[in-house]
Automatic annotation (TrEMBL):
Protein name: YbaB/EbfC family nucleoid-associated protein
The UniProt record lists the keyword Iron: no
InterPro entries for this protein: YbaB-like_sf, YbaB/EbfC
Keyword terms, alphabetized: DNA-binding
Annotated source species: bacterium (Candidatus Ratteibacteria) CG01_land_8_20_14_3_00_40_19
TM helices/strands, residue ranges: none
Lineage start: Bacteria, Candidatus Ratteibacteria
Top-level taxonomic group: Bacteria
Gene Ontology MF annotations: DNA binding
Amino acid sequence: MPKMFDLVKQAMQMKREAGKIQQELVSHTYKATSADEKVEAVVNGKMEIVSLKISPDAFTSVSPEKLERNIKDTINEAIGKAQKSLSEIMKSRMPDLPI
């Protein structure tokens, strides 16, 4: 039975640490810019969009489809950066967790 208690204790510690990490990540931001520099997206560690900037000339210099693609790709790139950072933080702070 002591082994079961140790497992429960370890799980509770991991849950607390994950909660701390999640709180910490809210303050981190991750920025991506489109290749043509007409779109900039910033997301936080909770994968929420913090800001989205679109250059005014983007509406006249590229097709609507290209602009839509730029917006989507730029947001996804920022989210990818946030996910990579989260993974690295989790690996360093919770090495026993299989990620």
